[in-house]
Structure formats: structure tokens, C-alpha cells
Amino acid sequence: MVTVGNKAPDFIAPAVADGTAVEFELFRRVEASEAVLIYFYPADFVPTCTAELCGMRDAGWAAVDGLSVVGVRGDSLYAGVAYADRFELPFPLAMDESGRVAASYGLLADAWEGHTDVPRRAAVVVDGDWTVRFREAAGDALDRPAPGPVQNATATLRELGLDADRPRVNYDGPW
Predict the structure, then answer these.
(1) Catalytic residue numbers?
(2) Residues 138-163: pLDDT tens digits?
(3) Is pTM beyond 0.85 here?
């Protein structure tokens, strides 16, 4: 399992960005950023995950200088296109249908809601030196911790000198 202080595993995965299928390469984001927030979640359209993704969107994290955000989920590219469009998500959503990426971070759920080998809901912050600076997972993808992993990651982003506002997560939104 990857913990705070460990070197982050690299990965390349199919992704959706700006409504287009692309190849997401973590190493390119790490090289170009002061920090990368990797948001793991089991599938698109899970209400609690949508609330956190929309919280990051509304907090303007896609526009924070030095910060890169990527979602990693166990859903198809086609679901990702519909999901990103529906919720106007401004960051890439990488596909991890086999659970390979989540497993490399120790964030693989053996089973969840009838699905196998999907990512657990978690936030991981990787700095420009590939060091994991923050890692927190929710007990279940439907849990509503207050504050949640994404909100708790904000303190680490600020420690890294990034001007990231703490997301307001509305679990009772129109998801």
C-alpha cells in the first residue's frame, strides 16, 4: 500500500478530457505541476463522488496555478464523456476498469455495489518530486464524512504553496 512519504506509482490510462478520448499520462502532469490531486472513485454518477467532484469544480481547482486534478474511476470512456458533460467537469477522468491503477495505490475495492475491482473513494496528493503528501480514503463510496477526503486534502495543497480554496461539498445536491 502506498502511504504518505512513499513514491507515487506512475500510470498511463485512457481518459476523457474536454469531451475527447485521450491518453492520460501521470508523469506529464507531475512534471508540469507542483502537485497532482488524484481522486479515486468507483464509478461515474455515484452521488457522493459527484458531490466531491463538483465541489472541486466549484472551488476552481482546475484553474489553480501549479495544481493538476484527475479523476480515476472504474467506468468506461463513454460513461465518462456523458458524466463530464452532464456536470461540466473541467479535469480529465481516467479509466481504470481493471483496477490496476487503484491496486498500485492500495485503493482497490474487492467488491462494491455488485462491481469488482473498482477504485475506493479516496484523494491522493502527489508533489512534483513524486512523493505522496496526502492520502485519505472514505470507508465506503457512499459514506458522507464531514469533512471528506477532498476537503481534507486542501490543507496539504496549501502547505505546498497552492492557493486552493476548500471545496464546499453538498452531498444533498441534485445528483
Answers:
(1) 49
(2) 988 899 988 999 999 999 999 999 99
(3) yes
